[in-house]
Amino acid sequence: MELIGHMMDGFATSLSPLNLMIVVLGVTAGLFIGAMPGLGSVNGVAIVLPLTFIVPPSSAIILLAAIYYGAMYGGAVSSILLGIPGASTAVATTFDGRPMAQQGKAGLALIAAAVASFVGGTISVILFTLFAAPLADIALQFGPPEEFALVLLAFTTFVGLGGDDVLKTIIMICLGLALSTVGLDLISGQPRLIFFDQPGFYSGISFLVLAIGAYGVGEILYTIETSKSAPQVTPARLTFRELGHGLKEMNRLWKTMSFGSLIGFFVGMLPAAGATPAALMAYGLAKVTSKNSDQFGKGAIEGVAAPETANNAASTGSLLPMLTLGIPGSPTTALLLGGMVMWGLVPGPMLFIEQPDFVWGLISSLYTANFAAVLVNLALIPVFVWALRMPFTVLCALVLILCIVGGYAPSQKMHDVWLIVGFGVGGYLLRKADYPMAPLVLALVLGPLMEKSFRQTLIAEQGNILAFIERPLSATFIAISAIFFLLPLLKYARGLTRSKATA
Amino acid sequence: MLIADRLIAAAIMAMSAYFMWHAMVLPIGWNGMTGGPGGGAFPFWLSAIMFVCAGAILVRSLRGKSDYAGDFFDPDTLRAVVTVVIALVVTIALIPWVGSYIALPLFLFWYLKIFGKHSWALTLSIIIGTPLFLFFFFEVTLKILLPKGLTEPFFVPLYAMFF
Amino acid sequence: MSYTFLRRFTSATAALVFAATTTVAQDWQPEKPVEMVIMAGQGGGADRLARLFQSIIQKEKLSNMPILPVNKGGGSGAEALRYLSDKPGDNHVIMATLNSYYTTPLRTDIGVNIEEFTPIARMALDTFVLWVNADSDIQTLDDYVAAVKASGGSWKMGGTGTGQEDSLVTAMLEKEFGIDVTYVPFSGGGDVARNLVGGHIDSSVNNPSEALGFYEAGKLRPIAAFTPDRISVFPDTPTMGELGHDLVYWMQRSFVAPKDMAPEAVAYYTDMFQKLSESEEWQTYTAEKALMSEFLTGDDLQAYFLEERGKHADLLSSMEEGS
Fold first, then answer.
1. Number of B:C CB contacts under 8 A?
2. What average pLDDT does the segment C83-107 reach?
3. How far apart (Å, rounded) are the C-alpha atoms in residues A166 and A172?
4. Where residue B99 falls among pLDDT bands split at 50, 70, 90?
5. DSSP letter string over C176-199?
6. Residue in B closest to A409 by C-alpha
7. What is the pTM of this model?
8. Which CATH superfamily is domain C34-126+250-322 in?
């Protein structure tokens, strides 16, 4: 009952006129920041954080929550419209969001993303409210072996289901994993794969650089070639009837969205994992359980809804380890953590007991922000869709400029901009030769986590490789991954014998 | 198409070999002392797998078991792709020298007016609008400074005004 | 909106008038935003502290131009060091350092000599404490040494990346007590603390700020501090010195500038950090987080850097012999 009281107080503060205005402004700003390739919630939060010392703390929290949610929604916008995932969490959204936009269903895809994000955010806020404290203990159970097993699972749920050429898929996975090792080896503390002795490689190859290169520049080159310089503009329209139709369509997806939210929340809650594996696993699971799984990757609305519910649920879930354990799961939560420290709060197990006002104030702000985000987002969809109706050469020029600036902005290094062009050309050639891009990008995102946790486990267990299957949680994950992994191999082997028989 | 497939497979093999050579700087085997693979093991063995798979693709295409047909590049539009890539490279090379506020509008001018053959009105409005957007969105709002090169002194009064 | 515009407008006019009236070099002020290079990635302890400084500077209006943090954590700060050494004479870039300021150039040859940089100010010294899980039976340092010895080398000590501060402290421990531990590197101090609470490792040498939350919740137990005097937050935890072991280790948090920065600019930044170190926010923060705020500038700071570099050279070479 005490809990409900705290929540009510929180809502009362977040619904004051000043705070409502802050929420709407914050969500809109976050939406645009997130929609810009290369920029994400990190940038929004970093800018706003110093301002939070000027406004009252309760408004500050609300502003931060609003920017955080706005940027999460915005990430889907660039994934769908431009095919460039603005953040690693939105990679899975491009798989079906982009094809939908190409079929002229950008409006529907954006509606699906917005509604799904809202559902994901809502369910996870509810879970957070009810189970925050006991769940923190589960998060502690996750040591390096469990982390490894979880990343492996995220990988296989997605990759194992691909229908592409197996050899080419394996190459792209290995390439992504190999590129993820560039930079500093944490375990030995030695630099490695510093190509051409360029200092820019010391910090490794960032996901954003690869995504903007392969998806942004590469996609544009590909379109320039295939459109035969007589570009076909995607006929994207959005009417009220379509909006209604879209919302009705979403009604069908309750199962997908609830699954997505649950996966998102639980995976996001684990300190090391975060929203990216969550979105991938939700996508993989939606594909397996869906009746029209052959439509996935070609513009299935479930393929947008599942990862979007999961990544929004996960970004709420990832606040849990930050608040209860003081461990940030992402750069954004790290900044938020810094902010809390500056407000004089000590994140950690005592926070819920000593500062209940803050915790529940934050949660109710999240809720308000989520609600505002879905409304603002739905209202802005016509604007986004309108952008697609620009003449193709204009859109191309502007997107290329965004790729350059967006690639430069996060690290402020020209080195990264050059890499983007390199990945763009390379990605364009590889795509033409039917090499799948998604496994490459995913491998780069998950690679560092995978290698680190694998080696940490082996060091801690003195090289005993059985450590992974001696612990119940990691053993379960590994068993499921093995099933996912073996399925396509079996299919491939069967295909080989069959082709031999016919030949 | 077949030739392109082979060339790309060969290029991947070359790249894998280059990666492997780099990875050899650190121990690539099972490190007995700490238990677990050495620092170079992951990049080395992953590149090795890449090498083998690309080799398999090469062998497969040499055996003629490929179902590709037609040209890899569309000869009509390849020119357009190559020009865009060259323009991008020139623009990026110019950025550190003359700054983003000259290089990027130049690129836009080329793309819209010369490559895209759009009207002056549209070209000019985008050429003027984009730098304004970049300055106010990235620099003033997000506090992310873009490279200015030679034009740096012209921005000092602007900084004084907006920061 | 109109308010901010008005403020900007007035401050712009003020700046113009100011620029017109004072052409004397002594009143140097940054004329464009100042880059604050951080030698570590986003989210780590060094990053959080640098951003805290930025916020206090902004809140107390200690600088007329914004201070913009830029993370260049690649290669344990090698990237940041190379960046700074490529900007001689630049008056608009400063760098937030930690101990990798000396260890990184010592461990790998990156063509950077830290003697060339201009020291600005040392803001604080962070402390190290030996921690175990509160569920373990270990109460004293003697218990700890006995437990490590009994484990026969399988004792898991968690810490940050190999060659960084935690691993140096571990090496000091191993040498002093003649023990042998398995060092498991993690990507950040917070990660280490969590793994210690979760029982995935057996001990750590976290900074107090990283473990404080868990300590207050009764999940972690401090065994001994690597400081000359007891840390006020842990009054019951003995120092290594009290227990008869001469083990002291600090993490310095300082600011440096590129070589040949104009003396007026150096004076400006030194003054800015002086004011910052006297600010109320900083004083409360250091007290709560058990940081030693020992302000140091100019030649004294350079001498300190060089002395520390010498100490770390010895430490690193003895560590390499040991392994």
1. 34
2. 91
3. 10
4. very high
5. HHT---EEEE-S-HHHHHHHHHTT
6. B144
7. 0.85
8. Bordetella uptake gene, domain 1 (3.40.190.150)
